[in-house]
Amino acid sequence: MAATPTRDLEATREQLRILEGAGADLIRIAVDSSADVEALRELRLGTDALLSVDLQENYRLAAEVAPLVDKIRYNPGHLHHHQRELTVAEKVAFIVECARKGSCAIRIGVNAGSIAPEYQDRFGDDHTAAIVQCAVDHCQLLDDLGFNDYLVSIKDSDPRLVIEANTRFAEARPDVPLHLGVTEAGMPPDGIIKTRIAFEQLLARGIGDTLRVSLTVPFADKGLEITTGRELIADIENGRFRSVPPNFYDGLNIIACPSCSRVENERFIELAQDVKRVTKEHSEENLTIAVMGCRVNGPGETDDADIGLWCGPKVVNLKRGPVTVGTYGYEEITERLQAEVAAVLHQRRESRTN
Fold first, then answer.
1. Alpha-carbon distances, residue 271 vs 6, 11, 315 (angstroms)
2. What is the pTM assigned to this prediction?
3. What is the pLDDT of residues 328-341, one digit of tens each?
């Protein structure tokens, strides 16, 4: 997945070069504006790579994008944001018609961090059931429209949920190809371990047709995602499975989204590394800290963490669970985070003693 804003042509061309050089079979970029569409037109002329585009929150761009790419991805959890007078089925029909005219495939990309409101209401805290049913329902929408060139992805930052959800979906719709991934896996080596856990369990069961490794790394190192993915596939094919380290899920858990084109300030990557450094002393605490790099993932996908940071162009929003504590500059956020961690841990100790 390209890490740079698509409209930054020079930087995105470099991303294509890096990813193609690393052996990527398909390269995903994001389109969120007319400027991104125009950039995509130029990028398409300059590469023979297979391209997939994430429609982000603006499904209406499908008409302009579909003729330029090999696959478009939409997230069912984002369809309610625009044109609320239209039903979800009507919006999906529009995307399908665009894909059909553009002769491209569709990925139904369901993400546990952005569950469509109707499924949240229906299933409550049972996120696995919600995202699986959402995927199944959207498959039916495409089936009813006579569109067969599609696949599904069901992702989360927790490999256990990824395993369970994809296994359930494969049982419900064994005919539909699955794209695997642990989203927001974070920085190496933990991000690689989380991804390996999911891939080993799923691929060994014959579940999964394509995959992506998502790591929080500097833009220039995005090729690591490709080489890591190929190494994992080779290990699984040759029976080289690695046991999960004892108590891997215990203690400090830092969730960080991949460095992608939605990131509005490249300092997000450095911040994720700083978070890991300054919280090292709390490695044995059962504490989850989520570091999100954009306005798409940030607000919702930090809600389930004990402490969340979602990064804008100039400021970082600091949250405790779903509640925003404050907004701080990049220069001061690390100190504020340390104070918030101390407050959360102090509150826990007080609760245990009372």
1. 22, 21, 12
2. 0.82
3. 999 999 999 999 99
